[in-house]
Amino acid sequence: MQFNANRMLSTLLAALFAVTAVVTVTTPAHAQTVLTVTGPAAAKQGATVNLTISLSGNTATTPAGLQWTLVPPVGTTAQSVAATTAVTGAGKVVACGATNLLCLIYGPNQNIIPNGPIATITARLPANAAPGVTAFTLTGLIAGDKSGQPTAVSSGPAYNLTVLSISDINGDGTVNSADIAAMANQVTAGTCTDDQNGDSQCNLLDVLIVVLRSLGL
Ligand SMILES: [Ca+2]
Ligand SMILES: [Ca+2]
User: Fold this and answer.
1) Structural domain contains residue 17
2) For 125-162, what is each residue's pLDDT tens digit?
3) Residue 160 Cα, ligand 2 centroid: separation in angstroms?
4) How remote is the CA of residue 166 from the centroid of ligand 1, in Å?
5) Is residue 4 part of a domain?
6) 89 and 150 share a domain?
7) Predicted confidence (pLDDT) at residue 73 exceeds the cutoff of 60
8) Distance of CA 35 to CAs 54, 75, 119, 127, 138, Å?
């Protein structure tokens, strides 16, 4: 009986090893080029946000160049675009359209674009952006290898930004008496980080605007 049990155990282990070996052999080993956009979890209406475009899955031969279009919430304007040092170190430059954020990374060489952050885009949210969750997406992706041939590229997980009301002084997602007090404190303390009406100063009028927003008006 003991012999049979040991034999059965040996047989099971052998079968498990065989299955593991098959799985190991048949698992695809190819990498896929993936572009991802990330940024802060939350920002206030009218705020400037820094967005990072990152690459993963490069290989020894691709990508040598990339193209994408960043589609931000309506009304968002791009302030600047910069390649990371990893990209400039590979002899590449980044260029984007002024209005449509169609961007290219290319260079006079066959160097491969490295994994990790590849470009930083600074954008300003519209002052009237609707509070809540809004998405930035990457579309129109094109990748080319060092011979100029197209290669597979896809976009990573969606980047969702929570837009906060400009009157949500403490950034907790609601506008209430705490924000009124915080705005009043900025006036009396002479600090002014949350100017409500765009006149570059904080005074009674800014407090009254926060009061109205707290009332849902
Ligand atoms: Ca608040
Ligand atoms: Ca003001």
Assistant:
1) no
2) 998 999 999 999 999 999 999 999 999 999 999 899 99
3) 29
4) 10
5) no
6) yes
7) yes
8) 6, 23, 11, 29, 8
